[in-house]
Design brief:
154 residues, Nucleoside Triphosphate Pyrophosphohydrolase
Length: 154
């Protein structure tokens, strides 16, 4: 297998933040004509830890100060064309402070909102791990293992 950057998977860290009202923090992306929700997060930079990436991305996208808790899922998505390969590392974060707003320079973001967990199953969220988030939150995020989720490219 080639080691060229163009043929390497993208590693993305996605933050799961659930507030005291059982609402999950989501950001809405607008790309071309398409809008969809994602968990806040982004690309893991070389030399950066997963925790550092999660905290940095949250600050950049939402201006919130957050504290890394732990990894809860890993998912892998392959585009049917074979041109994209994304590994998502899903982490739990706790908000420590700040005011929620779209960060400067975040042109792809068009909204940030806390959405009720009970409505998550009805939202279009990429990657689609809505069921896993709801299930594991109800079970208080069992910490005996990290679950590898094979998420289809949608």
């Amino acid at each position: 297998m080639s080691t060229d950057a163009i043929n390497s998977p993208t590693i993305r860290v996605s933050a799961i933040i659930i507030n005291e009202n059982s609402e999950i923090l989501l950001v809405k992306h607008r790309k071309k004509e398409k809008e969809y929700w994602v968990l806040p997060g982004g690309h893991l930079d070389y030399g950066e830890t997963i925790a550092q990436c999660a905290e940095r991305e949250l600050k950049e996208e939402t201006t919130l100060d957050c504290k890394f808790e732990r990894i809860v899922f890993i998912s892998e998505s392959l585009a049917p064309s074979g041109q994209r390969h994304i590994i998502n590392i899903f982490v739990l974060l706790k908000v420590q402070g700040g005011q929620i707003q779209i960060g400067a320079g975040e042109d792809v973001l068009c909204d940030i909102a806390y959405k009720p967990l009970k409505e998550l199953k009805d939202l279009v969220v990429y990657p689609n791990i809505n069921t896993e988030i709801i299930k594991n939150q109800k079970e208080n995020w069992p910490n005996s293992f990290i679950e590898l989720l094979q998420t289809p490219w949608t």
